[in-house]
Structure formats: C-alpha cells, structure tokens
Amino acid sequence: MGIELVHFSDCGAHRKTNQDAYLVRIASARCGNIAMAAVCDGMGGLKCGETASAAVVHALQQWFDKELPQIVTSAEINSDMLFGSWGRYIAGVHTVLKAFGRKNGITLGTTMSLLLMTEKRYYLAQVGDSRVYCDDTQMTVRLTRDQTLADRELLAGRISETEYKTHPGQHMLLQCIGSRDVVPVYTEGILPPKGAFLICSDGFYHFTDDDQIHMALNIPGGREPLKAELLMLGDMARSAGEKDNMSVAALRWDGFDDMPERTALLLDPEEEDYAPETLVSVMYANALPPELTELPRISSDNTTIFLEGN
After folding, report:
1. What is the rounded CA–CA span in Å between residue 32 and residue 51?
2. Which of 18, 146, 203, 291 is geometrically suited to a Cys-Cys bond with 246, CB 3.0 to 4.6 A?
3. Residue 100's Cα: distance from chain center in Å?
C-alpha cells in the first residue's frame, strides 16, 4: 500500500510560540506498509507546552523504532499488545513530564491524537482534544471524542448541540499528558480500501466542518493539490478569527497496491534518522531542554522510556 503524505504546522499571527508537535513514520513491515502519525498540542494555558508536546513525539518516535518491531507479525498487529505497549510509553513520558514540572516549579501538558495504520486496520490512542478524521471517499467521520468539559456535558445530555457550540467548557480539558492523571482512550477499526486520515490540533478544526474536510481530502491530482486545499482551510480559519497554533497531518491511499513509487519519492536518505526499512520519517517539534534528558529513565513492564534531545 502506498501512502500520500501532507503535513504542516502554523504558529499563527497571535502566538509567539508554536506549542504543537507532530510525527509521521511510514515503514515496510512484515504485514506490509505500516504508518504512524501523531499530533500533540501543548497547553497554551500552561508553561512549557511546547516541551510537553515535543517530549511525547520524541517518545513515540522511539516507540516506533524499538517496540513496534516486537508487536508486528507476518499477519497483523495484536491490538492488546499494541495498546499495552502504548500505555506503558504514555505512562512513562507522563511521569517524566510531571517530574520535570515538579523540579522546575511549573505545570506542563499536551494533548495527543495517535494513529497507527496497516493495510487492513487502524488503531487510535486519544488524550485531550486534538482529533483524528477518517474519509472513505464517501464521507468524513470523526473517530475521536474531545475530552473536554463541554463534550462530557453533551454526552450526558445536560446541554444541547446548540448550547455546545458556545459552551465555555469547549476549552477545558479533562486530561492531558504531563498533568494530573491520564487514561488514554483506545479504539480500532477496519481500514477502508481507499480513503484518507486527517490528524489535527484544535486550531485547525474550530472553523472547519466535515464537508470542507471531505472535499479537501478527495481533491484529485496528488499531494500538491491536497496540501493546497488543506492550507486554504487553515487560511479560512485564520480569517474567521482562529488565533491558536494549528497542525495537520494527512495520509491518503488509493488501493492497497497503488502508488508505491510516489511513497518512495517522499524519503530523504540524507536525513539523519533515515533507516533502510523506513520510507518516510517526519518530525516537527521544539527541541527538548537538556535538563529533561537528565531525569531518571522511567521503566515499566520491561519497557524503558528514553527521552533524548535532537
């Protein structure tokens, strides 16, 4: 399966720091091509949100290289093993960030929307209010729920859909990685034969609806028209009043045997993190502070979390 990849991040005109981070890895595995994408939104109301988001994507990159090969079989991924492994890594980086915050007298945290896709299935881990959308060429469906106070009130029937749109709890997270307790929500599903995923921070979707996303993800002509459409949606959000950072990663496929050359053209053998089995490796994140790498390593169930700087 070949995959078209588009990704970008925008600090915005009203923010001095981009607290978003994202990661995309596409590699050849025993069960075929496999891709991982994650978007993390550091908390603007907390200090060092950019450090929290960077720490999570660095940990996920290491998970992809160190742990994923132990989970992938010749047939498919065992979801229990996958979610257990993710859980240990998320708990590890959560503990590291909390320790870093205590040591420096600060509070920091980040959302995380994490996607892993094989040629047959997809797997998700969700913390916070970044989002994952799936488009099967017929319609766009949001696969994640926002873990916010407003969303909890909506699900409980205490507010209506109309009230939800203006509820102040839309920006009040129930959990984030690095602050208080965190319990990721894990889901999985069958991959459509043809379609696209879009993973984004909340700065992108506040003024963007599902129909607009659907039209963008189904624009013909390859990666450049797709990126132009998504950038246009970002510009429209800015014009409508969006002030937050925004980050987007979109992965689109057209049949399981199409576009292998297009995918291969995305690799850059000059990159430091290039490996022969890796087709694509992309990371956007602020540098980790040297002090963070000096914290004790967090181990659990034979898994060690290494937080390493650039």
Report:
1. 34
2. 203
3. 23
